[in-house]
Amino acid sequence: MASDADVCNLALSYLGDVANVTSIAPPDGSAQAALCSRFYPIARDQLLELHQWGFATTRVALAQIANPTTSWACAYAGPTDVLNYLEVIDPLAADPLAADDYAVGIPLANTMFGVVGSNVAVASAQPFVVEKASDGSDMVLTNQPNAVLRYSAAIADSTKFSPLFTEALCRLLAAKLAGPLLKGADGRAEGAAQLKFFQAALERAVESDANQRKLNVKHTPSWIANR
């Protein structure tokens, strides 16, 4: 898998640079390494935030803290490595229609669609909000006791990235580096071109990531569901 320097060098190569950065933390002394040291973490975290990547998705049992409000039953400390809060889950839920804890199946006859004989997947997540605690840390407020949080982690280890994510990251980084390296109209034009390449790479990466998952919703026949 690619190192941080590999990612930066590929991004630089897209701009026609010699691409011989050896380190960005700390920078190796070159102008390119200094720029990559500034812009690489920004590009990486932006891309991680754009999609619920499988390699960055994790879950943790939340630690309860003092609740400063009466509007929610429970307050929990947010994880220190969280990038996106995705879902608060009831770890004890056992819906007979659910094949997983990402979604549960409900008969369409019980929804606004008014159709009998099929199922629709709905999120099994519990309501929650994220606010700041008095010490400035994240606080998760929910009515769910013993809550488990599914979230996207701020992954800094580039060897954990999928190959197509890495390609998209290189293109996004190249778009950010184009202006400082090429200057003026050339830099703006190349930055715009790299953003187009990035959009195409992002679509491929998201499609591939989605294909790594298989979520099943158990079907319940209407004659059983409506008994």
Structural class: alpha+beta
Shape: elongated
Say how many strands there are.
9
Give the topology string: H per helix, E per strand: HHEEEEEEEEEHHH
Task: Count up the helices.
Answer: 5
Characteristic terms for this protein:
9 strands, 227 residues, disordered C terminus, elongated, single chain, alpha+beta, 2 domains, three-stranded antiparallel beta sheet, four-stranded antiparallel beta sheet, 20% strand, 36% helix
Structure description:
Helix content is 36%, strand content 20%. With 227 residues, the chain is an alpha+beta fold. It has 2 domains: 4-52 and 162-210, no CATH class; 55-154, no CATH class. Strands 2-3-8-7 form a 4-stranded antiparallel β-sheet, with no helix packed on it. Strand 7 and strand 8 (138-142) form a beta hairpin. Helix 2 packs across helix 3. It is elongated and about 55 Å long. It starts with a helix and ends with a helix. Residues 94-99, 104-123 and 217-227 have low confidence and may be disordered.
Write the layout of secondary structure elements.
Elements: H1 4-14, H2 31-50, E1 57-61, E2 63-64, E3 74-77, E4 82-89, E5 103-107, E6 119-123, E7 128-132, E8 138-142, E9 148-153, H3 163-182, H4 184-210, H5 222-225
Antiparallel strand pairs: 1-9, 2-3, 3-8, 4-9, 5-6, 7-8
Question: Could you provide a short overview of the structure?
Answer:
This protein has 227 residues and is α+β, with helices and mostly antiparallel strands. It has helices spanning 4-14, 31-50, 163-182, 184-210, 222-225, and strands spanning 57-61, 63-64, 74-77, 82-89, 103-107, 119-123, 128-132, 138-142, 148-153. The strands form three sheets. Strands 2-3-8-7 form a four-stranded antiparallel β-sheet, with no helix packed on it.
